[in-house]
Structure formats: C-alpha cells, structure tokens
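Got a spare moment? Tell me how you read both lines of this record:
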Amino acid sequence: MVSPSPASDEAALRAAPTLATPAPTPAAPARAAALIAVLGALTAVAPLATDMYVPGLPSMSAALHASGSAVQLTLTAFLVGMVVGQLLIGPVSDGRGRRGLLLAGTAGFVLFSVLCAAAPTVELLTAARFLQGFAGAAGMVLARAVITDRFHGADVPRYFALLSQILGIAPIVAPVIGGAVLSLSTWRAVFGVLAVLGAALLFAVVRTVPETLPPERRHTGGLTGTFRTMGTLLGHRAFMGYVLVLGFTSAALFAYISGSSFVFQNVHGVSATGYSLIFASNAVGMLIAGFAFARFSVRVRLNTLLTAGLALSGAGAVALLVLPALTGTHLAVTWICLFVTVSGVALIFPATMSIGQNLGRSAPGAASALIGGLQFLFGAVASPLVGLFGEGTATPMAVIVLAALGAAAVCLVVLARPWQAHGEVHPGPGTR
C-alpha cells in the first residue's frame, strides 16, 4: 500500500471500518491454524525471556561478582530493547515486508541468547540482554502485523484474544519454568533453553510464515516515509486513545504482577507454594475471560466488550481499596478482588489490540509498534512503583492499579470515544 503524503495517510486511517485484506481461501484452514500457532509462540518467547531467569538472580549476582541492582538492570535492559525493537521493526516492516525481518529477528534472538548464556561479566550480560530484547521484539510486533495482513472480520478479534492471553499468561508461568530449569542446572542454562526455543521458532517461521505484505501494498519513501506514517498515527486521536487505554491497563497488570507476591506472602502470610496457586487461579480467570471475549466478539461490538472489561477491572480495584477499610484485611477479599480485576484485563487487551490495528490498517507494522511498544513501556514504568510506595499493606498496589485503570477510562472517554464506534470490526448482522 503506497502512502504518498501525511494527508493521504490520515484519510486512509479514517476509511471504512473493516479490514481491507482478503479472507483466507476455503482450502487454507489448516495452514491458517499452523500460522496462528507459530505467531502465538513468537508472541510468547519475549515475555518468557523477560522473567524466566528471575529465580536465578541471586546466584547470578554471586557468579558474576555483581551487586543485586546491577543484575536487576539486565531486566530493565531487556525491556528497553523490547520497546525500542518494536518501535523500529514495526514501521520498517511496512516498507520492507514482514518475513525477512521476522527471520532476522528470530535468528538474532537465538544468537543473543547464546551470548547471554556465555557472558563473563554483568556489563556484557546487560548489553546482550538489550540486544536479545530488541531481536525478540520482532516476533511480537510482526505477529500482530501478520494477523492484520492475513485475516479480516471476526477472525481478527478472536486471534488477538489468543495473543493477549499469551501476553498475560507468559510472564506468570515464566518464573515457574525458570525455577524448573534452575533445579537442574545454573542460570546460564535458562538462556540456553531460550536459545533452543528460538531455534525451534526459526525453523517454524521458515516452514510456516509466508510473506503477507506483497510489494504493491508496501509503503514507499524509505525510512522517512515509514516513520512519517507513524507520526500520522500519533496524531490520530481515536487510535492513540485506544493505545493509551491498552498502555495504562498494562501498567495496572504489571503493578499486580510485581506487587502481588509481597501482598499475599508478606501481608497475608501465604507460602510461596500457596502464592503460586493463587497466581495460577487468577491466570485461569484471564483464560476464561479471554475465551468469553473470543465467543462474544462474534456478535457483540468490541467497544462494548472493552467498556465492560474496563468497568469490571475498575470495580475489582475499587473493592480492593475500599473493602479492607470496611471489613479488615482478609485473604479471600484480596484474592477475589484481584481475580475480578485481571479477568477484566483479559477483555480489554484483545479489544484494544483489534480496534487499534483496524484503525491503523494502512500501516499495520507501525500500528503494531505503537501498540506493543507503549504497552511494555507503561508496564516497565509501573512495575517498581508498588515497592517504592511500600509493601506492608495491599493499599499501594490497589492505589496504583486503580489510578492506572482510571487513566485508561479517561483516555477511553476523552480520546477513543467508543460511542462513535471507531475501528469496529463488523462480523455480520446481529452485532450490538
């Protein structure tokens, strides 16, 4: 797709509300299923790489003769690399195509995982983690772009529901997998496992993922034209409204992920095993809500599901803040409130991704870059806030989660304006 000027880009962004991509042929269901499976795995690998080695941080600090803060910086470096990678790779793919960048990024992830495993100093490990995050970002950002290229109508929100479930679950199960690896070997083996996973994904991409953006649909004008398109997206009120809704909701989720262990173990006295079970049950809540979204998105408007998800999460966060003051601190109350909160998140994520990609369908790579980049940027900023404001009660986590969801609600009303039905995917008659 050619984008000769910012004005024409803006006109394209405001065009008809359905995705302008051909439907898969009737003979392609098996290929489509294989493609979605690989795209889902590509989406999972970077979140897995974020947290798999976390249980090994103390031993890593000792092995590298580095301080705890220096070792923790390797996590920050990975997140920064993942954000920068999405913001660069996504727009470039709109002009260069998806497949070549996806192959290069996946191969780079393998290489930099090996470098992480072999790093002799914390400084080299930090540099390798940044590059690993940058390369891993290719799978995340291009998976969304490929779905936008390849599918249309009701398929899009259903597949984005799957990707959002993966994004929500992968950071939760990653430390469990990492702990299992560490029970058999050292922290270096975690990066070895990631290298093997990356190699398997590279083989799967070669076999399964075709080029989904033919030359006639690519943007012209080189890098200048590519990033001018991103500037157009940044100036699109409704698109940025949905992106910010997703970003602030991600901040709420990351605040929960980083703070819940302290709340359940320090405040409520739950064992590490008990906390794992609670965390897993909340992950199940996200899965159930994600399946419900995929089912209802066929006949209920995405903006309706988005608003319902935000209301559900907000109600859970308000209850988490208010009920302890009225009834005292109880494990069951905290557990139920957080279950409700994260279940609502599982409705918000796929709705905002689907609507955002639809609004940015003239430049799916750039749209995916902004959606994913800001999602993880907001999450990275929110993660340390719970510890910064104290870990003796659930109040700091509740306040941060509620503030983030409140900001998301403001962006939804002021910028996205869901009653105007921006970016809706219309699967057919009977949608409400």
Remarks:
- The mean pLDDT is 82.
- Residues 237-267 form the longest helix (31 residues).
- DSSP finds 16 helices and no strands in the chain.
